[in-house]
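Predict both folds.
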Amino acid sequence: MNADDYEEGSVFKGLSLEWEVLTDLEFSGCRFEGCTLEHTRLVRCRFESCTFSGCRAAELDCKDSILLDCAFENCHLTGINWDALCGGGFMAPIETLDHCHLKYNYFTEMNLSGFDFSGSEILSSLFADCDLSKSKFNLCPLEQTEFFRCDLTGADFRQAAGYRIDLETNKLKKARFSFPEVVDLLNGLGIRID
């Protein structure tokens, strides 16, 4: 693609880019199937209402780039800083996340209220200063995933496992948890259960 390219409603299959720099590209309503972006730099790129299916993205370096209302299904996403793709937290980069595998992802100062993460795997990731009120993490493996200073009011963690939630810094009123995972929350308070 050339600089200043605009694509609307296009389908990209099997596209594979590694150690590339993409500049001034705009995609609207496009579909990406089985594509790979690894160690790629996105400069002033915009993806709006796009769908990513069976794609792999790893270690993206994003500068002045935006994702807006994009859908991800059966994707592997590694080392993604979502805050860098949401225009300063004013827009939602992700519309849906369906059966995806996320590892080393960062969600900072984002409004993800009511978002449904159910069925996706989120490993060794961080949610910090996010609004996750009424969000759903049902059936999510969350090993080594931390929640820090988040609003988890009414969030649903039933049948989720492996999460680390600091009881002192997160808002947890009306949040729902399953036994025995809920017992691990007490570890942070130094409480022993015999």
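Second protein follows, with its predicted structure tokens after the sequence.
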Amino acid sequence: MNHMETITLSRRLAALAALVPQGSCPVDVGTDHGYLPAWLLQNGVCSRAYATDLRSKPLESAMRTAQAAGLSGQITFFLCDGLEDCPPREVDTVIIAGMGGENIAGILERAPWTREKLLILQPMSRQEVLRAFLTEHGYAIVSEHLVQDGGILYQVLTARGGTPAPHTPAELLTGRFALLEADPLLPEYLEKTLQKLRHAEAGLACASSEEAALRLEKMRAVIDGMEQEYRRLQDAERG
């Protein structure tokens, strides 16, 4: 009997895996090495899965991962842009992680059928663009999580088609405070984000263009919202 390779996940990928419902049929978009769908199958979360990637080399790597884990027949692979070739009827959970918020929004915009699915999303940047897209296109954000991996704080959110809840300017960047309230990593995340924003604010304050003035006004609204939430959390800790 051949030895089957056991898949292990980074903290970031484990946080995504924990949100996949038991018995679901997920698609992992931009699967890279294919660790996530392979882990889900090995651990009995699902019995079949789909994986897509825009580039042939990562997809070939994912196929090798599946083969080494003895899962070749259980993962269907597509070389395509986002969800272009993925069969909507067979998938109930869409995982898009490890790319910018604009890219994720673009993939969802080209696949409106995703409003009928559970979305598990992990933007690496431009989180505010993704949240604005979701709220403007009929998706309701259901949960928000933070995960620390390799000294970096990542945002993970789930969404479904539904009535969107409004976001403040700060919440577009951080996630809705009401959903993140109990997250132990929120104070650290707010502190680090505020440091970056204040640094950027100082740079914009020195610029004299009209565009810079508008950006500065928007940034100050974000900073104000974050500072209020940060003070509230500190008061709660002390009280």
